[in-house]
Design a protein that fits this description.
Layout (H helix, E strand, L loop, with lengths): L3 H10 L5 H7 L13 E4 L2 E4 L5 H14 L6
């Protein structure tokens, strides 16, 4: 069974350049291949492609919380 510590160890095992490859092995579909500042929402998971995404991810988080106040409880 995979837990947070196992996932962290997998991601850090080979360095930051292989994070995407490790996530794909776990069944995560990578939507883009470059660092564009793109944010994405999949159900309750908000993700971004790079440090460039911080502003866009913040906006997406605010929009998501305002649209569904039950997420804050």
């Amino acid at each position: 069974m995979m837990n947070d510590q196992t996932l962290t160890a997998l991601l850090l095992d080979k360095g930051p350049n292989l994070v995407g490859e490790n996530l794909e092995k776990l069944g995560v579909e990578i939507l883009n291949k470059g660092a564009t500042g793109q944010a994405h929402k999949d159900r309750k998971l908000l993700t971004g492609d790079s440090p460039l995404v911080s502003n866009n991810l913040g906006k997406l988080a605010a929009e998501t919380l305002l649209a569904d106040p039950s997420l804050t409880t």
